[in-house]
Amino acid sequence: MRRTPGDRLFVIVIMSNLLALFLFLVVLIASAAGYVRWDRALDILLSDEILYSVRLSLFTATTASLLALLFSVPAALALSRLRFPGKDLVDTVLDLPIVLSPVATGAILLIFFNNTALGTFIETHVAGFTFRIPGIVLAQFVVVAALAVRLLKATFDGIDTRYEDVARTLGAGRIRAVWHVTLPMARPGILAALVLTWSRALGEFGATVTLAGATAMKTETLPVAIFLGFSRADVQQALIVVVALVFIALAVLLVIRALGGRTAAGDKN
Description:
single chain, mainly alpha, MetI-like fold, 2 domains, 14 helices, 0% strand, globular
């Protein structure tokens, strides 16, 4: 197909914008990495405080993302496969943690556990959440569960229901058809949702610090460690943790792209 001057101008415009955004992000990351004193990096990363933050972040992010997946898979299936009264309202409310500020989400949780009869009962007799590690898990769960539902609903929407119908005509019940047909087909999307929600939970700060606080060596996740580092003017510690989180985020994005490429290849086959 013959290219016109307008076609070339179009390519130049969109590529220049793409390159500008790419270079902008690269410059930002490079500026942070360039400010780090790398001779201190290993000592900081192996310090008791940062190792505690790493262990706590891995534990809470993994727990929150697995819980989110446990609840989100059936919830997304319900939104994707069923029709029921108030479905649009339910779908809208589930999106609230995505559009709300994480600080606002944390504030709502804090108010619930300190100013309502049910919340006070749970806090006193079931499990303590405010300014404790379970509060970190809960805050991360609330933030990432909505994201997991949205991602998984899109995954299930993309799977033709005719596959389930065929399985049911062969004698499988609804549960068996979903378990043996839909879920295996949705596996790449489920794995991608798990990885993405895990990384989002790992980097969650606003809701966590509002509900669980920012106490060193107690509720100090990696984002909280960055906050505490800047608050006590230890810029090197904060920046080294920032750079570590950037590399984790890049690794997560590469994993998601690999899963997406595998899904596309499977669709072609």
